[in-house]
């Protein structure tokens, strides 16, 4: 597989009504699509209606669909918002609902919050290590004060685009490399 065909999911980490994460996710997708490396799609946790882990009925459709979606992807961009100095409960629950499906893939983190969402992003890095997701170094941080109007309308500073492009390049390189150890026979 050439890197052009790698499938990268842009995972929206928040599910609350009135969330700003779709604005951030669409912006990242726009930049990614214009770079022309990889096939990008928004993955909205809210659409899967995941129950809390351990409270599910057997073969619950949302969980099956979630695992299939994660399995189908070669890499990820996590759109991470800081909730009480960590990631959302919705994102942690979604991460816990799959295991092997995450393994040996690459990811970047785009975070936001009063302090750029950095505390949440660092928590996520620890979790990704356990899931064998290789998180890249470049980490765009968006400020609720300077990259949003009134904390709700997304208006990123111009320089943020360069950060996104640098992160996407690293995801592209590592996703391609990790593909070779995951599905070596299918690689063309
Ligand atoms: C329960 C909760 C806890 C929050 N805790 C923090 C925090 O610790 N640090 C911070 O910078 N922002 C915090 N915020 C502000 C969020 O980062 C901000 O509302 C952001 O827009 C949430 O992302 P979303 O709109 O995509 O859900 C918190 C928001 C909520 C709802």
Automatic annotation (TrEMBL):
Pfam families in UniProt: FMN_red
A GO CC term attached to the entry: cytosol
Domain NADPH-dependent FMN reductase-like, chain residue ranges per copy: 7-137
SUPFAM superfamilies: Flavoproteins (SSF52218)
Gene3D superfamilies: 3.40.50.360
GO molecular function, one term: oxidoreductase activity
Similarity field: Belongs to the azoreductase type 2 family.
Name assigned to this protein: NAD(P)H-dependent FMN reductase
Organism from which the protein derives: Saliterribacillus persicus
């Amino acid at each position: 597989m050439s890197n052009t065909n790698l499938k990268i999911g842009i995972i929206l980490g928040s599910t609350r009504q009135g969330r700003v994460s779709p604005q951030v996710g669409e912006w990242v997708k726009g930049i990614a699509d214009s770079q022309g490396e990889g096939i990008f799609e928004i993955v909205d946790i809210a659409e899967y209606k995941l129950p809390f882990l351990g409270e599910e009925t057997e073969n619950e459709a949302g969980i099956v669909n979630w695992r299939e979606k994660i399995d189908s992807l070669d890499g990820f961009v996590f759109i991470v918002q800081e909730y009480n100095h960590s990631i959302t409960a919705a994102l942690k629950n979604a991460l816990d609902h799959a295991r092997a499906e995450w393994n040996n893939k690459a990811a970047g983190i785009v975070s936001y919050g009063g302090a750029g969402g950095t505390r949440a992003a660092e928590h996520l890095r620890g979790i990704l290590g356990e899931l064998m997701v290789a998180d890249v170094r470049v980490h765009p941080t968006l400020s609720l004060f300077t990259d949003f109007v009134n904390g709700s309308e997304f208006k990123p500073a111009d320089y943020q685009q360069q950060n996104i492009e640098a992160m996407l390049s690293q995801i592209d390189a590592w996703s391609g490399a990790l593909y070779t150890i995951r599905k070596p026979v299918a690689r063309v």
